[in-house]
Design goal:
Number of domains: 2
CATH architecture of the largest domain: 3-Layer(aba) Sandwich
Order of helices and strands: EEEHEEHEHHHEHEHEEHEEEHEH
Number of strands: 14
GO molecular function: ATP binding; ATP hydrolysis activity
Structural class: alpha/beta
Strand order of the largest sheet: 6-7-8-3-9-10
Keywords: ATP-binding, Nucleotide-binding, Transport
Protein name: ABC transporter ATP-binding protein
Helix content: 25-40%
CATH superfamily of the largest domain: P-loop containing nucleotide triphosphate hydrolases
Strand content: 25-35%
Length: 307
């Protein structure tokens, strides 16, 4: 076992018809982390996950899970990973308890070593253990999918859009469980369209666009790359015209006295922006800033590639 829970090297996939879903992608998922895999729709994330799951054949390159190459040691690789797909897939006529027991049996987990009720308790479904799965709400079904992926106690868990359609309270419960798993040593790979979720949870984030890796950095460093900042300045009088200055990238009037000024922090600082406002003969009554977030970085990076 190396320090990489998942090691991907020059991974490519071209579908029949010539569509290139992955283009020489290389990165490691460090063991013990919560790792974000982000990208626009159609970027190649699901193809990559399906290759790891053994559902899609790669065209070239290599992938290893917990040190096991997916081609040379497919059984060990599959035993090392649990995957929660976007689609909710299980038999509606089985109860949650039966679903987990059957899944554990498919992975060859001896009855004495199964922990189905413990898993249901962890995802807050203990009281639904013997209800038909088809009677569960959408949020409950998603949590059952997470429990199903953990029946064989894999060291790596992949969550593909796990909170789509889940309300805020259930989302929090799900993330609390994910954090618990991670604290116990499980490496978590997360894809999500909720960028604030990725920013809060992930230690490191990779971004894929048009099948190519365009970023792979610790979350804080990635967020720090956002150069665009916004400052809201409330002035001491109603404005007839907007002030103009080289320090301003963009300026918008919000209400009668509040200016929302966008500037590039690699070129000017907030002090210069405020000085330009005062230089236009305006008194400053109040100032607030909007910090850059992952969404800003994501949009800038994907926009640059698309452009």
């Amino acid at each position: 076992m190396t320090d990489a829970a998942i090691a991907i090297r020059d991974l490519s996939k071209t579908y029949q018809g010539g569509k290139r879903a992955l283009d020489n992608v290389t990165f490691d998922v460090p063991a013990g982390t919560i790792f974000g895999l982000l990208g626009p729709n159609g970027a190649g994330k699901s193809t990559l996950i399906n290759i790891l799951a053994g559902l899609v054949r790669k065209t070239s390159g290599t992938a290893a899970i917990w040190g096991f190459d997916i081609d040379a040691h497919p059984r060990n690789a599959k035993a090392s990973i649990g995957i929660v797909n976007q689609e909710i897939l299980f038999d509606p006529f089985f109860t949650p308890l039966e679903t987990l027991e059957i899944q554990a049996g498919l992975y060859g987990v001896p009855k004495a070593q199964r922990h189905s009720m413990e898993l249901l308790r962890a995802v807050h479904l203990e009281d639904k253990a013997k209800a038909y799965a088809r009677t569960l709400s959408g949020g409950m079904k998603r949590r059952l999918m997470v429990a199903k992926a953990m029946v064989h106690s894999p060291p790596v868990l992949v969550l593909d859009e796990p909170t789509a359609g889940v309300d805020i309270e259930l989302r929090q419960q799900l993330w609390n469980y994910v954090r618990e798993l991670n604290e116990r040593g499980v490496t978590v790979v997360l894809t999500t369209h909720y960028l604030e979720e990725a920013e809060e949870l992930c230690d490191r984030i990779a971004i894929i666009n048009h099948g190519r890796l365009i970023a792979n950095e610790p979350t804080r460093e990635l967020v720090g790359k956002a150069q665009e900042k916004v400052v809201a300045v409330t002035v001491d009088r109603d404005l007839v015209a907007l002030p103009v200055a080289p320090a301003f990238d963009k300026i918008v009037l919000k209400g009668e006295r509040t200016l929302e000024i966008t500037y590039q922090k690699d070129k000017v600082n907030a002090g210069e922006v405020l000085a330009a406002v005062q230089g236009a003969g305006l008194g400053i009554v109040d100032v607030s800033t909007k910090e850059a977030d992952l969404e800003d970085v994501f949009l800038n990076l994907t926009r640059a590639v698309n452009g």
